[in-house]
Specification:
- Residues 1-20, 234-257 are annotated as: Disordered.
- InterPro entries: Ig-like_dom (IPR007110), Ig-like_dom_sf (IPR036179), Ig-like_fold (IPR013783), Ig_I-set (IPR013098).
- Residues 7-16 have a biased composition (Pro residues).
- Residues 51-141, 145-216 form the Ig-like domain.
- This is Ig-like domain-containing protein.
- The protein is mainly β.
- It folds into 2 domains: 53-142, Immunoglobulins (Immunoglobulin-like, Sandwich), CATH 2.60.40.10; 144-256, Sandwich (Immunoglobulin-like).
- It is built from 2 helices and 18 strands.
- The strands form 4 sheets. A 5-stranded mixed β-sheet has the order 2-9-8-4-5, with no helix packed on it. Strands 11-18-17-13-14 form a 5-stranded mixed β-sheet, with no helix packed on it. Strands 1-3-7-6 form a 4-stranded antiparallel β-sheet, with no helix packed on it.
- A hairpin with a 3-residue loop joins strand 15 (192-196) and strand 16.
């Protein structure tokens, strides 16, 4: 049979300290100080871990035929954040067309229904709570067949003039663009060069000479040849023999005198 452990006497206060740690008022004050420290530590952790941050960013998606598009990302925040989706800097409301989706624990998504051409645009997400915010953006892309929306009319110019030929382009994703003369791709130099933006291409010929006369073809190429060209009898844009099946063009006659 073991002996009961001896009763431990409370430790004496440090020299110069007159507080009695056995005093109920002193013990109550110590409890309040400890609770205050714990609250401070909790607030510090919230400031460090509470602000929203992205775990997985938004990515561009391709809008396929007969399907909805879904933009997805993962976020971390505490307390739970407020989510806003936008398109072209305008907020999108949760509803039949645009549906907000939340999946535990941290996945948020926007589903775009009723596929239409106007859905091909830039979308953004904004995540906010009392401790901060974060944002990201991505595009919904679509497979729109490459086409020359408007070609250059036949052109006449004087010898020595500067000639510009312009073609407006349609296609999504943006197709490759270029120019050819009499069936041969145009080689650029200081005098003959072309510029490209998202919707058009411009061929510039400086100090044009009689040798610059000929048939100029503005063309576009896509990675989806089955969608990229039209039959000649249905559209003036034709696929040239020996060219890539994803390449379409329209011809302009340039005459210099």
């Amino acid at each position: 049979m073991s002996k009961a452990p001896p009763t431990r006497k409370p430790a004496a206060p440090p020299p110069g300290c007159t507080l009695d740690i056995n005093d109920p008022q002193v013990q109550k004050a110590a409890i309040l100080i400890q609770a205050s420290y714990q609250d401070h530590r909790s607030r510090k952790e919230l400031r460090e871990k509470g602000p929203p941050r992205e775990l997985e960013p938004l990515k561009n998606v391709v809008l396929l035929e007969c399907s909805a598009a879904k933009l997805t990302c993962s976020v971390s925040a505490f307390p739970d954040p407020f989510i806003r989706w936008g398109k072209d800097r305008k907020e999108l409301r949760n509803g039949p067309k645009y549906r907000y989706v939340f999946k535990d624990p941290d996945v948020v998504a926007l589903v775009v229904r009723d596929r239409e051409l106007a859905d091909l645009s830039q979308y953004s997400i904004n995540v906010s709570n009392p401790f901060g915010q974060c944002s990201d953006s991505a595009r919904i892309l679509g497979e729109v067949p490459a086409k020359i929306q408007k070609g250059q009319d036949n052109t006449k110019a004087r010898n020595g003039a500067t000639v510009t030929l312009i073609a407006e382009i349609l296609g999504e994703p943006a197709p490759d663009m270029g120019w050819a003369k009499n069936g041969e791709d145009t080689e650029e130099d200081y005098r003959v060069f072309f510029e490209i933006d998202s919707t058009s291409t411009t061929l510039t010929i400086r100090q044009a000479t009689l040798e610059d006369s000929g048939n100029y073809e503005e063309f576009v190429e896509m990675d989806h040849p089955s969608l990229a060209w039209m039959w000649p009898e249905r559209d003036p844009q034709t696929r040239r023999p020996g060219r890539s099946p994803g390449r379409v063009g329209q011809t302009t006659l340039l005459h210099l005198a």
